[in-house]
Amino acid sequence: MIRFSVISLSLVFSLTSCSLKTTEGLRPIDLNEVAKLNKVVENLYFSNPEIDYVYKAKIKVYNKNFGGILIVKKTGPENHRVVFTTEFGSKLLDFQFDGDKFTKNFVVEDLDKKFIINILRDDFKLLITEKSDILETFSSEVHNVLKTQSEERFNYYFFEKKTGKLQKIINTTKRKEKVEVNFTSTEKEIADIISIKHNNFKLTIDLEKFKKE
Amino acid sequence: MRNYLFLLVFVLIGGSIAAQEIAMNASEISAFKQKVISTAKSTNSIKADFVQFKHLDFLANDVKTSGKMVFKAPNLVKWEYTNPYQYSVIFKEDKLLINDGGTKSKVDIGNSNLFKKLNELIVKSVKGNMFNDADFTVSFYKVSKHYKAVFVPKDKKIANYIASFELLFNKDDAQVHEVKMIEPSKDFTRIIFGNRVLNSKINDSVFSN
């Protein structure tokens, strides 16, 4: 009996560990039902070309802390510039996204490593991507959850039902959550606080929007 | 025709107003250097407010931050941003003591990398007395109320990050009024000092994190 329960327990454990944590407890919604709604998911947090999006950034890699200023600007229908500087204003990196094309305008030597560039490119791309096609939809008591595909991975967008605000994006493989982005916003289209957390290594990026004078 | 003439005169005058920057001659340069050096020697401490503008060509507005700077001879500097966020760096011996909104850290500049050096440069320029820095070619100009020193890096590696570095000095007291760091992309950082207090007593405890 004991052996049986150990086996069944471990079986349950191994089964649940195979499935993606993100959708646990969520109710799938028929896509036909969704058809009545939008077919694309929209992230409007960096979508206004009139706005200079300027954030104080705090980056923690393993146990090291770095600070800086993150500046994002929508420069065209499918174009964004993303610049990271020190507090003193020295440019550390300058990225450009034109649709799916990525250009590294400038990177300070110490950061110019493929591994770092790829992570930051993917993180920033996740933040600025405005529209993606919906693959599946889910629902919980508080959220509408929309799943999209992003190359080999998936993104789950969590919209608060009550306010329609985007609160969270989780980037996953088929089985594992890789990156989690949380948004706190007072206005629907402006994120005051953004936190990006990586699950496969110790990297967090915390962003706080400059207050208006 | 008269209109064209008028326009031409206007452009010429306008042009000469814009080009009020005149290169200093050798004796002016040496007198100016003397003044800066003697001012720096008699300065035991400086307290000042500053406003920083980061200009990026694609932004509608420059990114504005501001704060306070404290210098105590010979080489203690605290650089503190207070708006719109709290962030301070203390330059103490070969260490940087950073307080990023409560998150404290210490960086050894002994094995410094380039961008920390760039930050250091701004702090050095507070004193103004950096004409003998072997890393730069310096040229001097007179502009309306100020003297201007333009530093161009000799080192190619540094030149990848800074095209030039400009200091504006007040004509009357030879103190640094403005620092401007121009990147090869033409984007720049401008720091303007105000409310300067010289030689007040400053406790060493200001320079601990």
Strand order of the largest sheet of chain B: 1-8-9-10-11-12-2-3-4-5-6-7
Largest pleated sheet of chain B: 12 strands, antiparallel
Oligomer: heterodimer
Identify the CATH class of chain A.
Mainly Beta
How many H/I helical runs of chain B?
4
The portion of residues assigned to helices of chain B is 10-25%
Strand content of chain B: 35-45%
Describe this structure in words.
The complex is a heterodimer of chains A (213) and B (209). By secondary structure, chain A is an alpha+beta fold. Chain A has a single domain (21-209), classed as outer membrane lipoprotein receptor (LolB), chain A (Clam). In chain A, 17% of the residues lie in helices and 48% in strands. In chain A, strands 1, 2, 3, 4, 5, 6, 7, 8, 9, 10, 11, 12, 13 and 14 form a 14-stranded antiparallel beta sheet that branches. Chain A is globular and about 50 Å long. In chain A, 28% of the residues are buried. Chain B is of the alpha+beta class. Chain B has one domain: Lipoprotein localisation LolA/LolB/LppX (outer membrane lipoprotein receptor (LolB), chain A, Clam). Chain B is built from four helices and twelve strands; from the N terminus they run αβαββββββαββαβββ. Chain B has a twelve-stranded antiparallel beta sheet. The longest helix of chain B is centred in the N-terminal third of the chain and has 17 residues, at 2-18. Chain B starts with a helix and ends in an 11-residue tail after the last strand. The interface between A and B is medium-sized, with 32 and 34 residues.
Give the topology, please.
The complex is a heterodimer of chains A (213) and B (209).
Chain A (H helix, E strand, L loop, with lengths): L1 H17 L8 E3 L1 H5 L4 E3 L10 E9 L2 E13 L2 E7 L5 E8 L2 E7 L6 H15 L2 E9 L3 E8 L2 E8 L5 E7 L4 E8 L8 E6 L4 E7 L4
Antiparallel strand pairs in A: 1-8, 2-8, 3-4, 3-14, 4-5, 5-6, 6-7, 8-9, 9-10, 10-11, 11-12, 12-13, 13-14
Chain B lengths: L1 H17 L3 E2 L2 H16 L3 E11 L7 E10 L3 E8 L3 E6 L2 E6 L2 E6 L5 H14 L8 E8 L2 E8 L2 H4 L4 E7 L5 E7 L5 E11 L11
Antiparallel strand pairs in B: 1-8, 2-3, 2-12, 3-4, 4-5, 5-6, 6-7, 8-9, 9-10, 10-11, 11-12
